[in-house]
């Protein structure tokens, strides 16, 4: 199914401001405790690093950043014809007893976040798990809600949201796509 | 009884005949062969227009499995398979259960053949008791009972002293000793031919030398004793060379080859299909070439199928554990007509000679030619008849063949034994 | 890209791209061994049957751990003897097991070709854990993974495999796998232990150990079985180990960055001196660890999705 761009919802500047605001909210809620950011592969990791850099300019200490591959925890593996590639999880710090903020680019049905929470629990027992997403496009299928949101974006099911980041796509923007 | 076979292409290598002629059969024997024959009233006519009429084919190496292994084959089913394959006579090997090493078993086989067989059956007796290679069997009585040759086929008589004495002992009877030439020590535990394929597949291999070594020994023993030694199922280029040289020296050695050793190489084993496991194993391309040359130039006197029926359970498991051997009576003639005669590898006359004249001569059997007075054992061929090998429709009790699904043209139409169709159906199917 | 095969029977069948997929997947599975809770839910509800006709605690345990860490239900079925002698035929056993709906059958058998036979008859995925002298694909894959980790790459490396090549399924699988990944392979051993037409496998053949290991980046030592002496292939274990065993002394001929590998179990003092097996050159224990990761990757790729 080919898609075409319906609208741009965030440009480079707006995206950056959203991440800055999220960084401030994380710091405020942490109340001085240190926080670990775990990005969900692939773009969630990039966003986690950017948020971490911003937190560093506020608090002078950069929070720990980890990368989580949720492939092994997906609930839809049986339905696929071929196994998806496993990219590997790298969380080089203990998460037991810590505040962990999961970071992802788009929150949709909530299944990815559910898988991510299961994965985190198998790695250790965080004290608190919070969720930061750049875009919440609605249509939740599980009772999952984000703590920090870049932008609320009502969409229809047929549409999709594409988050483009400099490091991966050469540009920073978020667009809504619709089928042609 | 009077039968006139009209207008067929008569091929009788024993008399150098290859022409369209009629054959008149009276009371089970050939009366006359000639053009435009007229026969007395009451003569049945068989129109052989477009067909080949030749002396009945004789397969001198068949395992009928009775007594003892009736679940694989019986005299009844085996001879029907032979007739369906265009054969009018078979020689059956001694590795039954009990072994045919005494006249009681020979009598039993002949009795069965008389009542239930549809083609002529000539038993081959064992050389040693129980095929154990240690003590001579009572071959004088066996010869008297009707054994036409002696062989421990399935096993090689490893003790040269015993084998020498056996060859000497049977000299007065005029019966050949048939050798299963395979050194049991070289490559013991083998599953296939030793070579690149066995290396890749990780299967234990038997070098061609295992056969060559014993062919050489048997030729030397034949020279020593003056016996007629016939080498069964030749499979290597080395063996062909040894037999050729020995014949040139005047040694009384003869040899046979199976259709599968002429048509398949060790490459056929790659899928681990147990129907490609036999003794001797399928060899390499060079061996097949040498065998074809030997068949054409007469170094190899005849084709014999080594028809070896086995039950499905014995040929469907792990390759290494599977029984050796495949059935061959119903596929030999069609396969060879299509793959060897049609392609020009051997001419029709040679083909007929290797299946009738040759076997009859070397085993001293009646038949092998269409001379007046000879028994009316006749094979009819249709060189254009298309066929597909369908094991499910075999007359044999067993189905172990690697040729299932093969197609070609050229098949036997009928086998007449003493002038009478061996199988009552109007057409024998391939 | 993406694994499409129903079964893993031999290295001869698979292509370089597929080998890379398995190695990459295995690489990312290694992390699970370092966790406190060694479990991911990926194969939850899947059943893996280990059908081992040849006794083998190590390989079977490796597959068992691999399956369990992926949350699969692993069942061990230990049969002995070949079909003809011991009653139930291989095919019958397999069909009986299939009637219980496993997702993967891992089979080790003394007959070359047995896993291929099963793969033809079973609907579920079949993994060859070693068939006769034919192949042992997961061993080759873990060997490749170990080499890649230690050397950073595979292409262009020189590997020498030493020992009873004729009877070794590990050697055959390694030869196929390594050649596909662009490595050069030399086999070395007494002529009686080198199989017929061996060079046609695309390897160099050497009958002198010192020469064969001189330029090798990797030296793989194979186990020598006692039965070989009895079969008249070598005169004695003593002589074999003097001439072909890798001692510290012989190690001097190797490159300083050589890797010493062995599929295990090691006959200490026969093909490998204990000092060498325990030296800094030896990566034998890494091989074992990687074995679990590779088997996890194989089970994941074969069992996780639709096989039908």
Please render the helix and strand layout as text:
The complex is a heterotrimer of chains A (about 180), B (about 425) and C (about 300).
Chain A: E1 3-10, H1 12-30, E2 35-40, H2 43-59, E3 64-68, E4 99-107, H3 111-123, E5 128-136, E6 148-152, E7 160-164, H4 166-169, E8 173-179
Helix pairs in contact in A: 1-2
Chain B: E1 2-12, E2 17-26, E3 29-34, E4 44-47, E5 52-55, E6 57-62, H1 75-84, E7 87-92, H2 103-116, E8 120-125, H3 139-145, E9 149-151, H4 160-170, E10 177-179, E11 192-193, H5 196-201, E12 205-206, H6 209-225, E13 229-231, H7 237-248, E14 253-257, H8 259-263, H9 285-297, E15 302-303, H10 332-341, H11 348-363, E16 378-388, E17 407-417, E18 420-421
Parallel strand pairs in B: 1-4, 1-5, 6-7, 7-8, 8-9, 9-10, 10-13, 11-12, 13-14, 14-15
Antiparallel strand pairs in B: 1-2, 2-3, 5-16, 16-17, 17-18
Chain C: H1 16-29, E1 47-52, H2 57-69, E2 73-78, H3 90-98, E3 104-109, H4 114-121, E4 125-131, H5 137-151, E5 158-162, H6 169-180, E6 184-188, E7 204-206, H7 209-213, E8 218-221, H8 227-230, H9 237-244, H10 248-251, E9 259-261, H11 274-277, H12 284-303
Parallel strand pairs in C: 1-2, 1-3, 3-4, 5-6, 5-8, 6-7, 8-9
Helix pairs in contact in C: 1-5, 1-12, 2-12, 3-4, 5-6, 5-12
List keywords for this structure.
heterotrimer; B: alpha/beta; Urease, subunit C, domain 1; TIM Barrel; 2 domains; 8-stranded mixed β-sheet; 8-stranded parallel β-sheet; 11 helices; 18 strands; 28% helix; C: 308 residues; alpha/beta; Rossmann fold; 5-stranded parallel β-sheet; 4-stranded parallel β-sheet
Tally of helical runs of chain A: 4
Tell me how many strands of chain C there are.
Answer: 9
SS field, number of helical segments of chain C: 12
User: What is the quaternary state of this protein?
Assistant: heterotrimer
User: CATH superfamily name of the largest domain in chain C?
Assistant: Aspartate/ornithine carbamoyltransferase
CATH fold title of the largest domain in chain C = Rossmann fold
Q: Termini separation of chain C (Å)?
A: 19 Å
**How much helix is in the residues of chain A?**
25-40%
Helicity level of chain C, as a percent range? 25-40%
Unreliable stretches of chain A (pLDDT < 50, length at least 5) are: none
CATH class of chain A: Alpha Beta
Mean pLDDT of chain A: 92
Q: How many structural domains does the protein architecture of chain A include? A: 1
Q: How far apart, in Å, are the first and last alpha carbons of chain A?
A: 8 Å
Strand order of the largest sheet of chain C: 7-6-5-8-9
Return the CATH architecture of the largest domain in chain C. Answer: 3-Layer(aba) Sandwich
């Amino acid at each position: 199914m080919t898609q075409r761009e319906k609208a741009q919802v965030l440009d480079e500047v707006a995206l950056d401001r959203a991440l800055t605001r999220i960084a401030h909210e994380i710091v405020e809620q942490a109340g001085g405790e240190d926080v670990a950011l775990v990005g969900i592969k692939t773009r969630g990791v990039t966003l986690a690093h950017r948020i971490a850099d911003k937190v560093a300019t506020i608090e002078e200490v950069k929070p720990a950043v980890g990368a989580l591959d949720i492939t092994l925890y997906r609930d839809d593996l049986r339905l696929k014809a071929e196994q998806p590639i496993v990219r590997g999880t790298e969380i080089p710090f203990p998460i037991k007893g810590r505040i962990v903020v999961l970071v992802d680019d788009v929150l949709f049905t909530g299944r990815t976040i559910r898988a991510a929470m299961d994965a985190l629990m198998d790695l250790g027992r965080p004290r608190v798990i919070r969720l930061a997403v750049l875009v919440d496009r609605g249509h939740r299928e599980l009772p999952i809600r984000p703590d920090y949101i870049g932008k609320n974006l009502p969409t229809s099911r047929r549409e999709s949201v594409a988050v483009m980041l400099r490091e991966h796509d050469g540009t920073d923007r978020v667009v809504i796509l619709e089928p042609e | 009884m009077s039968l006139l076979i009209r207008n067929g292409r008569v091929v009788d290598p024993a008399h150098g005949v290859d022409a369209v002629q009629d054959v008149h059969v009276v009371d089970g024997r050939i009366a006359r062969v000639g053009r435009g024959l007229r026969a007395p009233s009451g003569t049945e006519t068989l129109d052989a227009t477009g067909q080949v009429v030749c002396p009945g084919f004789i397969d001198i190496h068949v395992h009928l499995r009775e007594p003892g292994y009736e679940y694989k084959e019986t005299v009844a089913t085996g001879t029907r398979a032979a007739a369906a394959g265009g054969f009018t006579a078979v020689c059956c090997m001694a590795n039954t259960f009990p072994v045919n090493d005494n006249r009681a078993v020979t009598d039993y086989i002949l009795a069965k053949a008389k009542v239930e067989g549809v083609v002529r059956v000539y038993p081959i007796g064992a050389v040693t008791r129980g095929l154990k290679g240690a003590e001579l069997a009572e071959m004088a009585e066996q010869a008297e009972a009707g054994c036409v040759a002696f062989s421990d086929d399935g096993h090689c008589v490893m003790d040269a002293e015993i084998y020498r004495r056996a060859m000497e002992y049977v000299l007065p009877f005029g019966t050949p000793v048939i050798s299963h030439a395979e050194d049991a020590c070289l490559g013991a535990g083998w599953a296939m031919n030793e070579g690149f394929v066995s290396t890749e597949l990780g299967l234990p291999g038997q070098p061609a030398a295992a056969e060559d070594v014993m062919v050489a020994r048997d030729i030397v023993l034949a020279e020593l004793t003056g016996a007629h030694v016939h080498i069964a199922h030749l499979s290597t280029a080395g063996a062909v060379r040894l037999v050729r040289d020995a014949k040139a020296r005047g040694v009384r050695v003869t040899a046979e080859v199976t259709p599968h050793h002429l048509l398949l190489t060790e490459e056929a084993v790659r899928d681990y299909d147990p129907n490609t496991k036999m003794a001797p194993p399928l060899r390499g391309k060079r061996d097949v070439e040498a065998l074809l040359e030997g068949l054409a130039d007469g170094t190899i006197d005849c084709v014999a199928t080594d028809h070896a029926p086995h039950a499905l359970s014995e040929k469907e498991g792990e390759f290494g554990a599977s029984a050796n051997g495949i059935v061959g009576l119903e596929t030999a003639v069609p396969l060879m007509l299509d793959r060897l005669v049609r392609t020009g590898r051997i001419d029709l006359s040679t083909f007929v000679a290797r299946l009738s004249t040759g076997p009859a001569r070397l085993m001293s059997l009646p038949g092998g030619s269409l001379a007046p007075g000879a028994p009316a054992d006749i094979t009819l061929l249709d060189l254009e008849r298309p066929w597909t090998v369908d094991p499910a429709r075999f007359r044999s009790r067993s189905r172990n063949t690697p040729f299932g699904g093969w197609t070609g043209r050229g098949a036997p139409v009928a086998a007449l034994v003493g002038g009478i169709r061996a199988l009552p159906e109007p057409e024998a199917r391939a | 890209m993406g694994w499409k095969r129903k079964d893993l029977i031999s290295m001869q069948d698979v292509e370089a791209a597929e080998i890379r997929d398995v190695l990459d997947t295995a690489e990312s599975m290694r992390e699970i061994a370092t966790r406190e809770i060694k479990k991911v839910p990926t194969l939850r509800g899947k059943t893996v049957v280990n059908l081992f006709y040849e006794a083998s605690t190590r390989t079977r345990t490796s597959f068992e751990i691999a399956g369990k860490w992926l949350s699969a239900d692993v069942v061990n079925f230990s049969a002995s003897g070949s079909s003809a002698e011991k009653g139930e035929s291989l095919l019958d056993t397999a069909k009986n097991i299939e009637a219980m709906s496993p997702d993967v059958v891992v089979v080790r058998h003394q007959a070359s070709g047995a896993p291929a036979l099963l793969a033809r008859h079973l609907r579920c995925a079949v993994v060859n854990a070693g068939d006769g002298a034919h192949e042992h694909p997961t061993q080759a894959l873990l060997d490749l993974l170990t080499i890649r980790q230690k050397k950073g790459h595979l292409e262009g490396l020189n590997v020498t495999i030493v020992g009873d090549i004729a009877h070794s399924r590990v050697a055959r699988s390694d030869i196929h796998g390594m050649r596909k990944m662009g490595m050069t392979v030399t086999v070395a051993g007494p002529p009686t232990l080198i199989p017929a037409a061996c060079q046609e496998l695309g390897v160099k053949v050497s009958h002198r150990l010192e020469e064969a290991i001189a330029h090798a980046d990797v030296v793989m030592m194979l186990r020598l079985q006692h039965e070989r002496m009895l079969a008249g292939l070598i005169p004695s274990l003593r002589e074999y180990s003097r001439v072909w065993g890798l001692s510290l002394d012989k190690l001097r001929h190797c490159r300083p960055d050589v890797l010493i590998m062995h599929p295990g179990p090691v006959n200490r003092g026969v093909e490998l001196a204990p000092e060498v097996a325990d030296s800094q050159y030896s990566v034998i224990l890494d091989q074992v660890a990687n074995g679990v990761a590779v088997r996890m990757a194989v089970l994941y790729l074969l069992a996780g999705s639709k096989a039908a």
